[in-house]
Amino acid sequence: MTMENKVERSWFDEVMVPCYSPMEMIPVEGKGSRIWDQEGKEYIDFAGGIAVSCLGHCHPVMVNAITEQANKIWHVSNVMTNEPALRLARKLTELTFADKVFFANSGAEANEAAFKLARRVAAERYGEEKSEIIAFKQGFHGRTFFTVTVGGQSAYSDGFGPKPGNVTHLDYNDIEALKAHISDKTCAVVMEPLQGEGGIVSPVPDFAQAVRELCDEHNALLIFDEVQTGNGRTGNLYAYEGLGVTPDILSTAKSLGGGFPIGAMLTTDELASHMQVGTHGSTYGGNPLACAVAEAVLDEISKPETLNGVLEREILFREGLAEINSKYSIFSEIRGEGLLLGAAMNEEWQGRAKDVLAAAGKEGLMVLVAGANVVRFTPSLVIAKDDIKEGLARLDKAIASIV
Fold first, then answer.
1. Domain boundaries, the chain
2. Is 216 designated active site?
3. Is 283 labelled a binding residue?
4. Other beta carbons less than 10 A from residue 400's beta carbon
5. What's the confidence (pLDDT) of residue 4?
6. Is 140 marked within a binding site?
7. 158 labeled binding residue
8. How many angstroms separate the CA atoms of 46 and 394, rounded?
9. Could you give the count of Cα atoms lying within 13 Å of 31 in the half-sphere of its Cβ?
10. What number does CATH give the domain 10-59+304-400?
11. Is 226 known to sit in a ligand binding site?
12. CA 25 to CA 30: how far, in whole Å?
């Protein structure tokens, strides 16, 4: 890159809508779990593009898939189907509870489809008055107006005028509250099988099972938002398997494309029959490029050695974080499952997760936060074990610089 056409970080402030506050550095190249910025500085990536880059950067199976498909056909619209979409849908149904798949471009769109399907099923089976959606506080389901309203963080949905109605938020993990509130007017309960943005909060034993039973009792559908937990992230292909609870509808995105935008809603034959021609759609949903990449990603992450490797890497992270905490005493606990992990700040360090993130960046390590009090780690599922070791050493240095 010549100096004349070098992109500057200041351009962001000049030309981009200011709803983000990106880091000063601009990444330009990635390989595996390492990234280099414009100045050539190297970073170890424990963030994974917010649980997206499940095979790291520029994995050969993804590069090959997109290169091959790029020389065939890019877009056809949903007036026709295409080979990559059909192959991917077939594999998703073979690997999960689902019979049918709807493709979208993001997790928000997958959830939008899920919520619309739930409302449609209830209206056609029981009547319009059965329309309540129950969700959980601190949940996150996307940024469209419907999904952000269902999400349990009002700061994201306030200030945009009247919200979609008949959405109720209860406390996650509170079985009694759900039991007291759910009724025959509830059309669906939507939950993350492990809350991501809300602070890496796992369900207590029996919570998911109780939700499933209460949904069955009141003829409500159970929707699992697996946008962040899905595609091998927890060590199962989808987290519902580890909970032993099967949802009626599941949304997936993020790691599904390994970095190429794609989302999907999965459901059963019976429920899918309520979405007849014209009831829902997406111009780019099922795009051949996206589906070709996602098929390659799915083939790789569904391998037993990949899923077993997630659990091996989880142990390395937990051991390394425990060792760091034995020196600096800043974490109260390490939460999560697989490679969706959160280090919760203790009482003395409340509100300082971002300080850790900033210090890590200076040491050449990329991490995330989940709220003000949790440092979040969502690296590649196949991150080299040496990269984990080196990244944790950089985290140690970063924390040493701020204690």
1. 10-59+304-400, 72-301
2. no
3. yes
4. 13
5. 60
6. yes
7. no
8. 11
9. 2
10. 3.90.1150.10
11. yes
12. 14
By the 10 Å C-beta count (0-12 exposed, 13-18 middle, 19+ buried), 94 is classed as: exposed
Q: Is 391 annotated as a binding residue?
A: no
Domains 10-59+304-400 and 72-301 share a fold: no
* Architecture (CATH level 2) of domain 72-301: 3-Layer(aba) Sandwich (3.40)
205: its two tokens: 């034993």
Is 225 noted as a catalytic residue in this protein? yes
Residue 37 known to bind ligand: no
Q: Which listed residue (103, 146, 225, 387) is catalytic? A: 225
What is the SS3 string spanning 115-132? HHHHHHHHHHHHCCCCCE
Residue with tokens 């962001």, as numbered in its chain: 12
Q: Check whether 108 is labelled as a binding-site residue.
A: yes
Percent of the chain with pLDDT over 90: 98
pLDDT tens per residue across span 351-376: 999 999 999 999 999 999 999 999 99
The token duo for 245 is 């609870």
Reading the block at residue 67, the tokens are 């290169």
Q: Quick: pLDDT tens for 152-173.
A: 999 999 999 999 999 999 999 9
* Over residues 165-192, mean pLDDT: 98
Question: In the 3-class helix/strand/coil scheme, how is the chain assigned residue by residue?
Answer: CCCCCCCCCHHHHHHCCCCCCCCCCCEEEEEECEEEECCCCEEEECCHHHHCCCCCECCHHHHHHHHHHHCCCCCCCCCCCCHHHHHHHHHHHHHCCCCEEEEECCHHHHHHHHHHHHHHHHHHHHCCCCCEEEEECCCCCCCCHHHHHHCCCHHHHCCCCCCCCCEEEECCCCHHHHHHHCCCCEEEEEECCCECCCCCECCCCCHHHHHHHHHHHCCCEEEEECCCCCCCCCCCCCHHHHHCCCCCEEEECHHHCECECCEEEEECHHHHCCCCCCCCCCCCCCCHHHHHHHHHHHHHHCCHHHHHHHHHHHHHHHHHHHHHHHHHCCEEEEEEECCEEEEEECHHHCCCHHHHHHHHHHCCEECEECCCCEEEECCCCCCCHHHHHHHHHHHHHHHHCCC
Of 140, 146, 331, 377, which one is the catalytic site residue? Answer: 140
Strands 374-377 and 340-345: antiparallel
pLDDT confidence band for 2 (50 / 70 / 90)? very low
Closest to 202 (Cα-Cα) out of 211, 188, 192:
192
Distance CA 47, CA 112 (A): 26
For residue 107, say whether it is annotated as part of any ligand binding site. yes
